[in-house]
């Protein structure tokens, strides 16, 4: 599944992430814990994403 900028996804470890940029199969995301604390910006691959939570409408 292709994700777009500003989609919110659940990462395999249970944290949530907002997609900031997309480059082929690499996603730059901001990780946020369940209690709302930012864990920073990291690069993820599509296999690291469990499911889509919120999709940005065009």
How would you characterize the overall build of this protein?
It is globular and about 30 Å long. It is built from no helices and five strands. It has strands spanning 8-11, 16-23, 26-32, 38-45, 49-54. The chain starts with 7 loop residues before the first strand and ends with a strand. Helix content is 0%, strand content 57%. Strands 4-3-2-1-5 form a five-stranded antiparallel β-sheet, with no helix packed on it. The protein is an all-beta fold.
Report the end-to-end length measured between terminal Cα atoms: 17 Å
Q: Give the spatial strand order of the biggest sheet.
A: 4-3-2-1-5
Derived from helix and strand composition plus strand pairing, the structural class reads mainly beta
Largest sheet: 5 strands, antiparallel
What characteristic shape results from the CA principal axes?
A: globular
Tell me the total number of β-strands: 5
H/E element order? EEEEE
Q: Can you count the helices?
A: 0
Global mean pLDDT: 93
Radius of gyration: 10 Å
Low-confidence stretches: none
| Proportion of residues in β-strands | over 45%
Residue share in helix: under 10%
Architecture blueprint of SSEs:
Elements: E1 8-11, E2 16-23, E3 26-32, E4 38-45, E5 49-54
Antiparallel strand pairs: 1-2, 1-5, 2-3, 3-4
Record keyword descriptors for this entry.
58 residues, mainly beta, 5 strands, single chain, 5-stranded antiparallel β-sheet
Summarize the structure in short.
This protein has about 60 residues and is mostly beta strands. The protein has no helices and five strands. The chain is about 0% helix and about 55% strand.
């Amino acid at each position: 599944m292709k994700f777009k900028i500003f989609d919110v996804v659940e990462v395999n470890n249970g944290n949530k992430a907002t997609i900031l940029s997309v480059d082929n199969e690499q996603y730059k995301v901001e990780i946020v814990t369940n209690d709302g604390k930012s864990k920073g910006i990291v690069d993820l691959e599509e296999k690291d994403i469990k499911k889509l939570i919120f999709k940005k409408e065009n």
